[in-house]
C-alpha cells in the first residue's frame, strides 16, 4: 500500500510543472499536502501494533475521500487533463479499497 501511494504521488507530482501559478499554489498544493499526509499516516500505521493501527487508518480514509473530491473538482475545472484525471482516479480508487480492506480486517480481528 505504501508503494501504491508513493506511485500515486509521483504521478500527481509530475502534473505540477504544467499548471499555472494560481492552480499550482491553490488546489494542487492542497491535494499534494493531503497525499503526503496519507503517506505519512500509512507509514505510521505500518510501524504500530495491531491495536493502534486504526488510529492512523481512520483519518487516512477521510483524507483519501478529500483527495478524491479535490481531484474531481480539479478535473471539472480542467486544471487536470481528462486522461491524467482518469489515471489518478483509478489509482486513488485502488488505494481507497486497500485502506478500507485493511480497516475491515482489523475491525473483524478485534471482534473475536
Structure write-up:
The chain has 112 residues and is an all-alpha fold. The chain has one domain: de novo design (two linked rop proteins), CATH 1.20.1440. 79% of the residues lie in helices and 0% in strands. The radius of gyration is 15 Å and the shape is elongated. The mean pLDDT is 93.
SSE map:
Blueprint: H1 2-13, H2 21-24, H3 27-46, H4 53-76, H5 82-110
Give a quick precis of the structure.
This protein is mostly helical. 79% of the residues lie in helices and 0% in strands.
SS-derived structural category: mainly alpha
How many DSSP helices?
Answer: 5
Instruction: Tell me the overall shape.
Output: elongated
CATH T-level topology: de novo design (two linked rop proteins)
Tell me about the largest β-sheet.
none
The CATH architecture classification is Up-down Bundle
Computed Rg: 15 Å
Distance between the amino and carboxyl termini: 25 Å
Indicate the CATH class.
Answer: Mainly Alpha
Q: Tell me roughly what share of residues is in helical segments.
A: over 70%
Indicate the low-confidence ranges by residue numbers. Answer: none
Number of strands: 0
Number of domains: 1
